[in-house]
Amino acid sequence: MSAPPAAGLFDPATETLDRRSLRDLQLRRVQALLDEILPCNAFYRQKLGDHCHVPSWDAFAGLPFTTKHELVEDQALTPPYGTNLTYPRDRYVKLHQTSGTTGKAPIRWLDTAESWDWWARCWGHVYTGAGVGPGDRVFFAFSFGPFIGFWAAYEGARTVGAMAIPGGGMQTDQRLRSMLDNDASVLCCTPTYALRIAEEAERLGVDLAASSIRATVHAGEPGASVPGVRARIEQAFGARCFDHTGMTELGATGFSCQAQAGVHLIESEFVFEVIDPQTLQPVADGGQGELVATNLGRAGMPLIRYRTGDLVRVDDSPCSCGRTFARLAGGILGRADDMVVVRGVNVFPSAIEGLLCEFPEVSEFRIEVFSRRSMAELKLLLDAQPGTESGLAERVAERVSDRLLLRVPCELVPAGSLPRFELKARRLIRRDG
Ligand SMILES: [Zn+2]
Model pTM? Predict the structure, then answer.
């Protein structure tokens, strides 16, 4: 007789495997994936050859990386979907695309019925980590356009027996009303948008902390792992705040658990590596570097050793929740291309965001990067609530100087003048001159 499932785990058989067995399982799945895709996937056949065998981790480390640039180029050369397709087009049932916030053309991504189920199961891990299950009503403050956003989360709610409530096509006040009318117990949205809802609730005199929301699950931005942002969301909603990592191209990669100590990587469905983005060599255990991921369950449009551009630090020490899946310490620390070096100090927008969350009167902000004598400089624009006293900019500048050891000029702008974000917030603006 098998043991009863451990409480609070989605797939106890893999989530509590010892690290060595987990690595063996991954290696077997890598080979199974290659055997499935190479006969007909032109993109990977060209990269890896017809007969690629990966009997060891050394052999795996010899496979080439896949980059976003390659995917963009491939789709431009063979529109509309490129050549990374394992099956005939009629096997695919879902289309999504990247948000294209960097000003470039979005990448289109297709799923088969099987890979869409796989996404939903990955979300089973995310929900279970956040303690979401039968009886929960999950509200999605999301626009449900072509960007993947929370589409897979919406699909995945049923894998844990929860109800999915779509909040597309609504203004913030309508979403707030729908959430309350339906007694939603869980909210899924970006961390920025959660704060936007909190702002709206305050304006309307709604006490969110007294609502039935008990957990919030966030993606799209690193905020939910930034202590200051998390504390502000938890306080506003009277709920526990959980982080989730994922990408259109890869799928749902990670989740935070009840311990709220980092983001567990779903290692039963992915192989993860951390490399130095300059030398492309693996970083020492626990060192900071770029996350590289191989998905094991999305054969229709797979990715092998995909460079995510996310900077992380991986911790594979045991977690108090009982899972053996490694964790991203502090979630995603930043984007490799968002880091700004100012007078020798590495600055990530998330560090500034975390710090600004300690100032509840700041409702939005912008980080401007410009160059002076070929050196990067920063300026911080603060959009504060009406009636805020004028000393705020000086107090923020002082706090930045204390924490980041960097003097950054801060300036108040008229209340409500900076853009608000629903999806991925772009608060770092680079200016010439
Ligand atoms: Zn844990």
Answer: 0.84
